[in-house]
Amino acid sequence: MLDDHLLFREGLSRLLEGEPAFCIVANCESVEEALSTMDREPVDLVLLDYDLGKQHGLTFVEHAKQRGFNARILMVTAGMSDANTLTALESGTSGIFLKHNPPGQLVEAIHQVMEGKTWIDPRSAHSLAAMASGKPGESRGGMPLSERESAVLKGVFEGFTNKELAFQLGCSESSVKWVMQQLFQRTGARTRSQLVRIALERRAEEWLSDRIPAT
Q1: Both 113 and 157 in a single domain?
Q2: How far apart are CA 169 and CA 149, in angstroms?
Q3: What band does 157 get if pLDDT is binned at 50, 70 and 90?
């Protein structure tokens, strides 16, 4: 766990120590301390705050990648901008969890991340889904989306199952599965988590190209 607030670290440690599936390796307040710990101890998951006072969590992510650490990273933060959320997910973090959510939901998020899934807080997912799906019929980033595909992709970002999506869209579950298969084929994704990442990466490329003048 990497967070610059001691009280939060201690409280979260007590919560997670009550879960038989979890073992707390270390509580760290700085990027350097966390990296040093991971050099010595095997770590499966890092709970990482974005705002670390004089540092920020993405610095840790960058250095962890450079050292070849394979631990999953779940951002546990009070809040992040859409741009920073995009950067975090593109950098390989497994999700964003906002601190205002119930503790039990964090336990659920950890389990999902350890299963290889991506966890995105619903508040973050709503704005990211709009960024990733774009307007129906647009051909941007090599990923033109129909209205139905945009709606399904938005639902994937917000964590809905195929059955829930079918209910929301007023169609059959087999129809949702077919659209999902189309999205997988067009992006090369094999899982929902990969689909989320690819959609974000392509949207981020557009965001950058719109802001960097051609030379």
Answers
A1: no
A2: 11
A3: confident
